[in-house]
Queue: 4 jobs
Job 1
Amino acid sequence: MAAKAQERLGRPVKVMRFDELSDIGAYDGVWANTSLLHVPRAAIAGVLALILQALKPGGILFANFKAGGVAGRDRLGRYYNYPDRTALTETYAQSGQWDMLSVKEYVSGGYDGVSGPWIAITAQKPQR
């Protein structure tokens, strides 16, 4: 995916883990579609803090998570942090000052073909 993006953009595209993010005020937005859901629960607040730091004032973060309340593995053996709404919004609050624009719960399928609960959060780094 990064190679295709690099080809289309005509500039280098980094491939890294979220915990390797070290930019400060560099991005207008971060689209973390079905990616932060694999971060170990104990590390989510730290990753969110790094994303907050990397966003410009007013920058937006979209992230969605398979919900459930108890971390574990799916039937294919892949790890998911499976937060619930309360735990996830508390984790955002612990990671720094976010303006929560939207918290939506919905039902959808996953790569394993199983439908279940999801949580999508759109948050913004304050302008100040």
Note: Residues 69 and 87 are 8 Å apart (CA to CA).
Job 2
Amino acid sequence: MSKKIKYLNRFHQPRYFYQKNDFWYFDVAGDRHVGASINDDGSLYHVDPSGGPFISVKTNLRDLHKDLPNATPKSIEWDREEGAYKLTV
């Protein structure tokens, strides 16, 4: 696992991004109030924890933090083992 990149949401609560293997992970730090929308095939289109950040398959990760890749997620899924959202970029 790479170093976690800390993102403070609009309520100054931490959210974390980290890379493991070929995936980026988005850890909402225990927030249980995460909005989401689902595509027709059952995959996630976006996740939106309270206070943000809103992340969709159209979000350029670099726009959220300078140390994130200049890439948009192709898919988003919940990874139960990691306890975080897995972003395939």
Note: The radius of gyration is 12 Å.
Job 3
Amino acid sequence: MSFESAVRSMLTAGSTISLVPDARITLGYRLQDSALPAITYDCETTELTTIGATPDRRAVVNVRAIAVQSLDAIAISEQIRSACKAGTYSSIVFSAVVEIGRQLDDAVVGDGDEAQPAEHTNSYTIFYTE
């Protein structure tokens, strides 16, 4: 399994994220005409690092909660924070998941297709072993 698949497994493990169906958790981007709310995620960087005696990898991952209203995006983001934790996902061991930042982009109201949903981004550093 790939690291990206393991991140998806972490997000869908258990029922931590109840506001977004599993099918709306996607890698990279969300189709503009797909239903909301949704979650997207991407891996910015991956590099080899050494922590103690075990060589691990480190990745920076951004997870975005997308919803029509800003308060809904924030509520989903809180569920994402609960889901992002150490564990074994798709046979990849996440030894630590550290939140490094959050950002809210408010919904932009416009006419027709000019409207833009709210987006709340959580950024994490994930230390993992393949």
Note: Residues 3-129 form a domain with the STM4215-like fold (CATH 3.30.2000.10).
Job 4
Amino acid sequence: MAGAVEPASLRRVRLPPPLLAFALIAMALAMHALVLGRAAPLGRSPIGGTVLALAGFGWMLWAAWLLRREGTTIRPAGQPTVLIEEGPYRFGRHPMYLGMAAAMLGLALALGVPLLAAGAVAFVVVVRRVHIPFEEARLQRTFGGWYSDYAAHVRRWF
């Protein structure tokens, strides 16, 4: 399948997931500040939120470190050279996205910003509909049956 042309739906412009996450965080914090100021209508959980945010960030860093260690791309639009099946990739095919979403939820809890939790949900929806199909199609084309076997045994998220 070398040299196959991607369908138009896979060629559309995508905001890289880290930038998407930062944009959603910024929008949620700005909207919260404009509407509610410093108030936390549902309360704050600084310790629980910080633990969740750090766990999500650590999960994401572990996944990124494995990609770097193996010399394959960390960029979602990059061409993979190695299929990683260890570490957090044993539990889910997209641990970096899961880590980003968990970090966003942890930040929402720590700061008491419900819109940030909505931003985390929006992040998951966009990544699931826009980024993951593109990435999984590229992995399938690159690794063929090896990726099919991996995808059959490892859940997409966790």
Note: The CA atoms of residues 2 and 141 lie 8 Å apart.
